[in-house]
Amino acid sequence: MPIQSFIPPQRTLMGPGPSDVSPRVLSALARPTVGHLDPTFIGMMDEVKLLLQYAFQTKNTYTMAISAPGSAGMEACFVNLITPNDTVVVCRNGVFGARMIENVQRIGAKVVVVDGTWGRAVDPQALEDTLKQTPQAKFVAFVHAETSTGALSDAKVLCEIARQYNCLTIVDAVTSLGGVELKVDDWGIDAVYSGSQKCLSCVPGISPVSFSEQAAAVIKNRATPVQSWFLDQSLVMEYWSGQGKRSYHHTAPVNSLYALHESLLILQNEGLENSWARHKNQHDKLATGLQALGLDFIVPENERLPQLNAVYIPKGIDDVQVRQFLLNEYNLEIGAGLGQFAGNAWRIGLMGYAARNENVLLCLAALKEALAQ
Ligand SMILES: *Cc1c(COP(=O)(O)O)cnc(C)c1O
Fold first, then answer.
1. What's the whole-number average pLDDT of the chain?
2. In a domain? residue 71
3. pTM
4. Does any ligand 1 atom lie closer than 6 A to the CB of residue 340?
5. For site-directed labelling of 212, which of 18, 184, 334, 337 has its Cα 20 to 30 A away?
6. Percent of the chain, pLDDT > 70?
7. Are residues 198 and 314 in the same domain?
8. Measured between alpha carbons, how far is 188 from 182 in angstroms, rounded to an integer?
9. Is residue 199 helix, strand or coil?
10. Is 359 in the same domain as 278?
11. Is 3 inside a domain boundary?
12. Mean pLDDT of 37-57
């Protein structure tokens, strides 16, 4: 058989990302490709910046989208801000905090870890205790929404503590952006990164980032160039900045940026607060249904992420068999456990376009049938 066009099945995506992409976003993606320095495209990029400023609730000039997935946004924040002489305090309560630690280590900087329980929010007191004993610390990094466990940390309080100890903050908002309250300026976040494929419900492969004036100054005043040429934000900004001339840095993923533009526009039309409320309402419905099926949440109620529902797999139930049943019989994808929870938890995403009545009902009905078998 000769190789033929790839026609993917129509799945419902309720895992940890990518999430269901809205048809509006998919059709934006299919519009004609223009040059990445075409004046019309540059105008659209300026709108993407405005829409991202709205989504992040920031006036930061240094707000743009990195042409690569969330992990690249993470790496961009770390390699641009941190140099080998720095000390960075990293809070770890799941897989993505651990990745932050690796980023710091690869730069050759000193990392001090605040270890927390997986499935719980970061403990502000533990951060403060560590900062008291680490006067040389320059940065505090933490994950707002830990997708590996479903825990939501209090970013506002953690940033306040960091500021008291004169530290700049690096915040992972990959899963939080659009799904729960996030206020970059009000909370004083200095560097934040997200991803296109979680609560923005865009195609994967783009990472929105934003840097405060203070963080931008740190980047500008570096004594040594950023070790990564591709992620060097001082170069990328020359392409993304609106000051008349734009210079070629790399070829932007033109069509993916159409898709991001559309997904951010959908978010703006709905309104951030409405989007946060929708995620919470759908989560409440799903949580009631899951508990009626006898499934227990990993995270205590007041620390739960609405957009990522992590539940223990009941004793005697086969993880892989259930997920295969959902996929084969209902075209429904849910997430497996990650890290400490591999094999003993499911992660059910309600992200962006997926946070709808239809999806909640489908998931509960399909899981009920799977568990009964
Ligand atoms: C998904 C995710 C990432 C990584 O994003 P990719 O787009 O997969 O590179 C980082 N942090 C968190 C919290 C995530 O959920």
1. 96
2. yes
3. 0.97
4. no
5. 18
6. 99
7. no
8. 11
9. coil
10. yes
11. no
12. 96
Q: What is the CATH number of the domain that holds 209?
A: 3.40.640.10
- 367's CB contacts (< 8 A; 6+ apart) are 290, 293, 295, 322, 326
Pocket test for ligand 1, best of 67, 71, 74, 92 (most atoms within 8 A of CB): 71
Cα–ligand 1 centroid distance for 315 (angstroms) = 29
Looking at residue 235, its amino acid is: L
277 and 212, same structural domain? no
Q: Is residue 7 part of a domain?
A: no
Q: Are residue 281 and residue 328 in the same domain, yes or no?
A: yes
User: What CATH number has the domain bearing residue 289?
Assistant: 3.90.1150.10
**From the centroid of its chain, how far is CA 72?**
11
Evaluate: CB of 147 within 6 angstroms of ligand 1. yes
Q: Which residue has the tokens 């934040």?
A: 192
**Domain range enclosing 329:** 12-18+272-372
Task: Assign 3-state DSSP to the chain and report helix, strand, coil percentages, each to 5.
Answer: 45, 15, 40
Among candidates 40, 339, 305, 71, which has minimal Cα distance to 199? 305
The domain boundary, picked from 268, 291, 325, lies at: 268
CB 94: neighbour CB atoms within 10 A? 27
Write out pLDDT tens, residues 196-219: 999 999 999 999 999 999 999 999
The token pair at 8 is 């993917």
Within-domain flag for 1: no
Claim to verify: residue 253 and residue 157 sit in the same structural domain: yes
Mutate to test the pocket of ligand 1, among 93, 146, 147, 194 (most ligand atoms within 8 A of CB): 147
Predicted confidence band of residue 238 (pLDDT cuts 50, 70, 90): confident
Helix extents (H) in the chain: 23-29, 39-56, 70-81, 95-107, 124-132, 155-164, 184-187, 213-220, 233-240, 254-270, 272-292, 319-330, 357-372
Domains in the chain: how many in total? Answer: 2
Residues 221 and 329 in one domain: no
Q: Are residues 199 and 286 in the same domain?
A: no
Report helix angle 254-270 to 39-56, nearest 10. 40
In whole angstroms, give the CA distance from residue 149 to residue 297: 10
